[in-house]
Amino acid sequence: MDVAHCCLEGNADAVEFCPIDSFHHVLAASTYTLEEGDLPSRKGSISLFNVTADKGGTLELFHRADTAGIFDIKWSPVRGNVGPLLGQADADGCLRIHQLEGSEDGGNTLREMTGEKVSSSMCLYLDWNPSGTSITVGLSNGSVLINSLAESQLETVQEWKAHDFEVWTTSFDIHQPDLVYTGSDDCKFSCWDLRDGPSKLAFQNSNVHKMGVCCIVKSPDEPNTVLTGSYDEILRVWDVRSTSKPVNESSICLGGGVWRIKYHPHVQGSVLAACMHNGFAIVKIGDKEAQVVETYSKHDSLAYGADWQKGERNTSVIATCSFYDKLLRIWMPKGVSIA
Fold it and tell me: Domains in the chain, start-ordered, CATH in brackets?
């Protein structure tokens, strides 16, 4: 069921609902637009919306800020001293942290709390550790950074050459935060142990993905399960105790490059996938197999950004965005039963 939609002022590439209590209605959307010419530039923006799905549904813009072109945004899982924190990875090689300030019933605004140029390469992806004290960043030169955040200050504490090409995804293991997963255009799916030094591989698989690895997500419920998405259109299910090959029976072709995967906040095994050239899909990950239970095809461009609204246990609300048509949509699926 469609709830609301709007067009952003740039190419839409990421949407993230705030995970912090009392702010679950807040949605962040980012853009990346390459302006060609004699002096090409990469420009972007962050827009914040109030989202409600009841009483007809609303999508109300309450803040917008121009930035460098943004590749990724993520809310911290832990609230800051004043309000929720939003991380930004951008084309200028900067990692920026914004803080949502204001009252919980309205009047919020986003203020840049700190920012650092962490690389001369582009920052393509970021992820927070579960305690909100560290951020991992993937770079266009194949390197990965670990940045600490303490007393509103960012500091790069580790950096290493992890891949041969662009690092499109890097994420902390939510059950073992000393482990960091990375994926790249070199088709390698890797895991690194931060306790053993920045270049210590825990494991690496370079034989299975036929094209670049776009996203890696750890299951919040199954501590040995990791999902990967790839340009080769396959969502793969892995058991980290045996990484020579994925759990093949549970892997599934989604008909488009799997750019993002998001686990449902409450329904175990239900994931939302952004499938680039094939819209969006909701996939049920079972013990024996994975199956598509619903698709959404009301975007007319590259399906990039996707997220579930947090906190609402009796409904499922989804935000999705597509790139060239600059479209942001809020919708409710039919096929996700609330456990």
Answer: 2-331 (2.130.10.10)
